[in-house]
From TrEMBL:
InterPro entries: TSET_complex_member, WD40/YVTN_repeat-like_dom_sf, WD40_repeat_dom_sf, WD40_rpt. Residues 1198-1234 are annotated as: Disordered. Residues 1215-1234 have a biased composition (Low complexity). Keywords: WD repeat. This is Transducin/WD40 repeat-like superfamily protein. WD repeats lie at residues 257-301. It comes from the Eukaryota.
């Protein structure tokens, strides 16, 4: 429950501290007057300066800024050069601080029964123009530093009547033109107010104090009047009126009270549930006083810690400690808490900081001392303290929720209700929207003073609420957890600190069941629950302060941890059911057969049980656990455990981020009490859909979302950190975190298991219908008459799961500089040197739809204001999201912005209404909404959105099987409506070039054709997908229209890729477009794409066309192999043509020169030819496929029987696959496999042999002939050696044979070749 959030060690004492309400910023000042701004979330220093003396960096920066602006050096001393003196107070100021200060004051005043209810709190006008100020009040000057631009303004005390500054406070009620006002308390007892717009003194509060002012605070009375309270060293507490006009320059006190002897140290405002706000003051007389703000009478005075004076006080309201409402600190190591005066007003140590900090942070002989403290204004679970060793930020059980549970709303009622516990009594909270509020119409379109439509701010919806007494007492007033059964008939309350539980019947508030239990979980389907029964562990008394050593404290802590563990080990999980007559019966006395102690119960469609994992506990961890479990938050019990906090919370603070979570969470069936699935990491909480379709398991850094039907399936996780609770509303998960409210839109998509389950259900329905028919009419009912049936089959496409997160509310203020506002150039004038000049507003036009509803121009609305503190999410009722805070006040968040409303309607299942609401959303955001609806499974409805792009419209049309619309979109995107018609059937590159006439109409036509072809090429994949979808649904006309365009683009050289051309050929053949296919082959041959042309010819079933495609494009090797494999009569002609091509390739060029090569001739030993006549008798070289006879010999071919593929359309078989592969590697093996006569290695040998031939001069080839005896070694070698070695061996053998044949020839040349160069040539 207690853990260290952040720790920053320092060498000096931290004496001043303040937290920013919305950003993770903290400003501190130490006793050496050094001010530091620290980001406690990222552990980074934002800014540091020496405020007490002269900060040289700021001084140099100010001089450079003046030089850059062209200002001359001033005669006087710059304000940055003035020593600041002792730092008295530090604070932040921006629009967030201003808003939440006003909200806190108004909400505290509204609790009073006599409060004047004004209009709902609106966002105040932006006062700092998006800047974030750090304000430092020093003894001699005030420093205003802009953390955005790092520009600063120093206001010396000379401008404030030359009086020392001791404290400050920001005023939220300002006059016209004054801008932000800050009040300074001075040493002469006068309060001076400075305008941050003009940097001038605007008014004084005089005549009150006779001593120096030590503290200031502004608040609002129950009457609605703005007041300022001041405390001084004279012990007086004076109330001033902060409602003033521009003409009020001197103000006198409204009321003066004698508060303390010796001076007032600090003052704080406390919000009281159901009563007027109270003032809390601490003084130098070591007392704390509580004052009523209506009569200003003293209610109570106590001494929190005897013999020690308090130096900090904070109002606190945490659901884990319902009886504690004031925090204070003295110079020791504790944070002290004071009980509410209704109980005893006793002071208890909330926590001991020594057990929280890292062990190495505190020296062995050094004692921890607290010098200042502050509680977070919006997150009460965060408390920051300044000590003598650094800054400590503690977190107190951020998962604890207010003790309230919503009840189901009757269908005929608009009033909602919830049950809460307060001061040992059950009360009923009734709430509903005010009659004047209509959330379905949105907000008005009038402009605010910032020039932005007020509707974008989403002002809080007016809520009408009231509290009623039920007159039903409860046995305890400690921390409690409330939950309601699935039917809403029973309410369960658990007091985990006692431990005790009670189940009440809502109709008459009678007790149905009660007993000893620490945890309770309901079933979401029936009125049954599980409890964790346990005996109360023996409570070990807390060691009093200073009465024992640290070792004794650790021993006592370890002893208590052991006692708590022993008590937990005896706990058992029982399941009980509440019957209709209101009696409770035990279904199962012990769930699960595991021996580990149970530390958590989670209800839902399945019962989740978390077990303690066995881990070794160190003494330090035992001390921390003991400190957690012994926190006397309510005065009862010592375990400090609830359904939202487990025993192992002490370990979680010591676990490293990289350490894997233990698998200690098991799900059980409520029916059989048997385990379901394996062990999982323990979630912090679980949320189950009422329809048992989805569930969410929350962990510290993310939320895991799963689908439950037809079987458990993981959908994904969303990175929402530190979530505290969530509620399902169909496919919407509303999540609350300590700082935000998020919506997660969920859809499980369509998986294979869904299709199989659907088919099984249809088959089961068919069988049931047949069984009923047989039962009614006998066996004759099974006789059916088959009629004409359409083959159109419904296509069920798989769809991935979708998770989308939208932030609905947060603490941060809306941006104060809208996009259509321009900031003028900042300049300094002698009379008014303000650098925060007034903005020049340029208001844009606002489009107004029907009924006066402002048309949104943003995708999502600006985030609404999240209510302060921990919240219970009630759910969506009346079209708004309801929340209940710690003070039992209901809040409504609007869901009427079109960007959110459309998504909520689509997730709820009403896609038609979502499309209607989309008319109020900017059309530029329709694509995003259509993508969302597509993920939700509403592709058909999303097509009706008017603003979607053509590309997305095509995808939606394909998903919804509207192929006609998809074709129109594709033609529009590709600009190809005029391509592929009858006039452009034979479109080719020459046709486009022939249009280069100078006539304008032909130039335009040429441009259109070029653009159309480019568009088709760009969307070639989409065209192919459309053709396939049309074929699958028997829409042949659409497929033909797409084929026309694609075929036209395929006839242009280089337009389509090889695989696209092959796909086009297959689809043309499938549709019987033989004319276009033949034309495609001819065009491909013309373009030189032999491989694609042959593939098209193969699809066409024309072997002659295939060979012609290869022959005309120079791919004779493929043609020869194909003719040889299929026994074609054209084999001899193809081989002759192939040899002729090779002979032409190796012809010598005229530039070649022949020289002698005597050095090489001497090395040849083979017999020489005697004359050229003998050499001329040798026949010319022949290159033949292996196994083929010589060209001079007669060729006898055994024709194969004609196959069916030659008579009809040839399907793409093995030859087609061979044609797709490169011709030098895969074509020959496939052909060899088909004919059982060709060897792939032989073909590879022939290819490499051909590659060596171009090195031989043509005049030598006619005299070169390899005998059969010389070829045989080549054939034997290719069979014995691996393929990668054949190339080198063949080349070496070829060179040797050439040498033997060429030697006798070279001697008879005229002139003879005798040089080596000539031989090489």
């Amino acid at each position: 429950m207690l853990r260290l959030k952040a720790f920053r060690p320092t060498s000096d004492k931290i004496v001043k501290i303040q937290l920013h309400p919305t950003h993770p910023w903290m400003v501190t000042a130490d006793d050496s007057d050094r001010v530091s701004v620290w980001n406690w979330e990222h552990r980074q220093v934002v800014y540091e300066l020496k405020a007490g003396g002269v900060d040289e960096r700021r001084l140099v920066g100010a001089k450079l800024e003046k030089l850059a602006e062209g200002e001359t050096e001033s005669k006087g001393k710059p304000t940055e050069a003035i020593r600041g003196g002792s730092v008295k107070q530090v604070n932040f100021y921006d629009d967030d601080v201003r808003f939440w200060q006003l909200w806190h004051n108004r909400s505290a005043a509204a609790e009073a029964p006599t409060a004047v209810h004004t209009s709902s709190l609106n966002s105040p006008a932006p006062s700092t123009k998006g800047r974030h100020f750090l304000v430092i009040c020093c003894l001699n000057k005030a420093i205003f530093l802009d953390l955005v631009t790092m520009r600063s303004r120093d206001v010396p005390k000379q401008e404030l009547d030359n009086k020392s500054l001791l404290c400050m406070e920001f005023l939220y009620r300002t006059g016209v033109g004054d801008g932000p006002l800050v009040a300074f308390g001075a040493s002469d007892g006068v309060i001076r107010v400075l305008s941050m717009m003009t940097w001038k003194l605007v008014r004084r509060y005089t005549g009150g104090h006779k001593g120096s002012i030590s503290c200031l605070m502004s608040f609002m009375a129950a009457s609605g009047e703005a007041l300022l309270v001041s405390g001084a060293s004279d012990g007086l507490l004076i109330i001033w009126s902060a409602d003033h006009g521009q003409d009020s320059r001197e103000l006198v006190p409204k009321l003066s009270l004698k508060a303390h002897d010796g001076g007032v140290v600090a003052v704080e405002l406390s919000r009281v549930m159901g009563g007027a706000p109270q003032l809390i003051t601490i003084g130098a007389d070591k007392t704390l006083a509580i004052w009523d703000t209506v009569s200003f009478k003293e209610l109570r005075r106590i001494k929190p810690v005897p013999k020690l004076a308090c130096h900090s006080v904070a109002s606190w309201c945490h659901p884990r400690a319902p009886n504690l409402d004031i925090l204070t600190c003295v110079k020791d190591s504790h944070i002290w808490a004071i009980e509410h005066p209704t109980y005893s007003a006793l002071t208890r140590p909330l926590c001991e900081l020594t057990s929280v900090i890292p062990p190495h942070a505190l020296a062995p002989n050094k004692k921890l001392r607290v010098y200042c403290m502050v509680a977070h204004a919006l997150q009460p679970h965060l408390v920051a303290t300044g000590t003598n060793i650094g800054v400590i930020i503690c977190e107190f059980d951020s998962r604890s929720l207010p003790p309230v549970a919503p009840l189901p709303t009757p269908s005929d009622s608009r009033e909602h209700s919830a049950i809460f516990v307060i001061e040992r009594e059950l009360k009923l909270l009734n709430f509903q929207l005010n009659n004047s509020a209509n959330p379905s119409l949105g907000n008005s379109s009038s402009l605010s003073e910032t020039g932005r439509p007020k509707g974008d701010f989403f002002e809080p919806l007016p809520v009408k609420q009231g509290k009623k007494h039920i007159s039903t007492p409860v046995p305890h007033d400690s921390y409690s957890v409330l939950s309601v059964s699935s039917s809403g008939k029973y309410l369960a309350i658990v007091w985990p600190d006692i431990p005790y539980f009670s189940v009440y019947k809502v109709s008459d508030w009678s007790i149905v069941d009660s007993g000893s239990a620490r945890l309770l979980a309901w079933d979401t389907c029936r009125d049954r629950f599980a409890i964790l029964e346990s005996a109360l562990p023996p409570r070990i008394p807390i060691v009093p302060k200073g009465s024992s050593s640290r070792r004794a404290k650790e021993a006592a802590a370890a002893q208590q941890a052991a006692a708590a563990a022993a008590a937990a080990s005896t706990a058992s999980v029982q399941v009980r059911i509440v019957l209709d007559d209101g009696t409770s019966n035990i279904l199962m006395r012990s769930v699960g057969a595991r021996n580990e102690p149970v530390i958590g119960l989670h209800g839902g469609a399945l019962l989740g049980v978390a077990y303690r994992t066995s881990r070794r506990v160190s003494p330090i961890a035992a001390t921390a656990i003991s400190s957690i479990q012994s926190m006397p938050l309510s005065g009862y019990g010592s375990s400090g455990l609830s359904s939202f906090t487990t025993y192992d919370d002490g370990f979680s603070s010591h676990r490293t981020p990289t350490e894997a979570a233990p698998q200690n969470f098991q799900l059980y069936s409520w029916e059989t009490f048997q385990p379901v699935g394996g062990l999982l990491p323990q979630p912090e909480w679980t949320a189950w859909d009422q329809t048992v379709e989805y569930c969410a398991f929350a962990y510290q850094q993310y939320i895991v979302i799963s689908s439950l039907r037809p079987q458990y399936r993981y959908l994904g996780d969303v990175a929402i950190r530190y979530a505290t609770s969530a509620v399902w509303n169909r496919r919407q998960l509303f999540v609350a975190t300590p700082t935000t409210i998020e919506i997660v839109f969920v859809d499980a998509g369509v998986a294979q298991i869904d299709i199989e389950t659907r088919k099984m259900k249809e088959e089961q329905k068919t069988k049931e219908a047949q069984a009923r028919a047989v039962a009614e009419h006998g066996e004759l009912a099974l006789i059916t008459v088959e009629g004409p049936q359409s083959d159109k089959e419904e296509r069920i496409a798989l769809r991935p799961p979708m998770l989308q997160v939208v932030r609905l509310a947060s603490f941060q203020h809306a941006p104060s500089v809208p996009p259509f506002l321009s900031l003028p150039k900042q300049s300094r004038v002698d009379s008014d040197d303000s650098w925060m000049a007034t903005e020049e507003r340029k208001t844009g036009e606002v489009a107004v739809g029907g009924g006066g509803v402002s048309v949104a121009v943003t995708r999502f609305p600006m985030e609404q204001k999240r209510p302060v503190g921990p919240l219970v999410v009630v759910g969506v009722r009346d079209g708004v999201l309801w929340l209940i805070d710690r003070y039992m006040c209901a809040h409504a968040l609007s869901l009427s912005h079109p960007g959110i409303r459309c998504r909520c309607l689509a997730a709820y299942g009403d896609a038609v209404s979502a499309v209607k609401w989309a008319s109020r959303l900017g059309r530029e955001h329709h694509d995003d909404l259509a993508q969302f609806m597509l993920g939700m499974g509403y592709a058909t409805e999303a097509l009706h959105l008017p603003g979607i792009s053509k590309r997305l419209e095509f995808d939606l049309a394909m998903k919804s099987n509207d192929l006609k619309r998809a074709l129109h979109c594709l033609l529009t995107m590709s600009n190809s409506r005029d391509i592929g018609n009858d006039g452009t059937t034979g479109l080719g590159l020459n046709d486009i070039l022939n249009l280069s006439d100078k006539k304008p109409d032909k130039l335009d036509k040429k441009q259109d054709i070029v653009e159309g072809v480019q568009g088709i090429v760009k969307f070639a994949k989409e065209f192919l997908d459309l053709i396939d979808a049309a074929d699958a649904t028997a829409q042949s006309e659409i497929a033909r229209e797409a084929l026309k365009r694609l075929a036209a683009a395929g006839s242009v050289k280089g337009a389509l890729e090889g695989h696209e051309l092959r796909g086009l050929a297959l689809r043309l053949a499938n549709h019987g477009e033989l004319t276009r296919l033949s034309g495609l082959v001819n065009n491909l041959v013309t373009l030189g794409l032999g491989r694609e042309a042959a593939f098209a010819g193969a699809v066409l079933g024309d072997n002659a066309l295939m060979e012609k495609a290869w022959q005309d494009t120079g791919m004779l090797a493929e043609a020869v192999l194909h003719a040889h494999a299929h026994g074609r009569p054209t084999l001899k002609n193809l081989v002759q043509a192939w040899n002729q091509v090779l002979q032409r390739e190796i012809e010598p060029t005229p530039s070649q020169k022949t020289d002698a090569a005597a050095a090489f001739l001497a090395s040849l030993e083979e017999p020489k030819l005697t004359s050229l006549a003998d050499a001329g008798k040798k026949p010319a070289i022949e290159i033949l496929p292996p196994g083929m006879m010589s060209l001079n010999a007669p060729i006898s071919i055994q024709k194969k029987p004609a196959s069916a593929a030659q008579n009809s359309q040839q399907p793409p078989g093995k030859p087609l696959l061979a044609l797709e592969a490169p011709p030098t590697t895969a074509a020959a093996p496939e052909s060899a496999t088909a004919t059982h006569s060709l060897n792939p290695h032989l073909h590879q040998l022939v290819i490499h042999f051909h590659q060596s031939l171009p090195q031989i001069p043509r005049q030598l080839l006619q005299h070169l002939h390899l005998s059969q005896n010389q070829v045989k070694p080549l054939q034997m070698m290719q069979q014995l050696l691996p393929l990668h070695q054949q190339v080198m061996e063949i080349k070496m053998l070829t060179v040797k044979l050439l040498k033997q044949r060429l030697l006798p020839i070279l001697h008879h040349l005229d002139p003879p070749i005798t040089s080596s160069r000539g031989f090489r040539d």
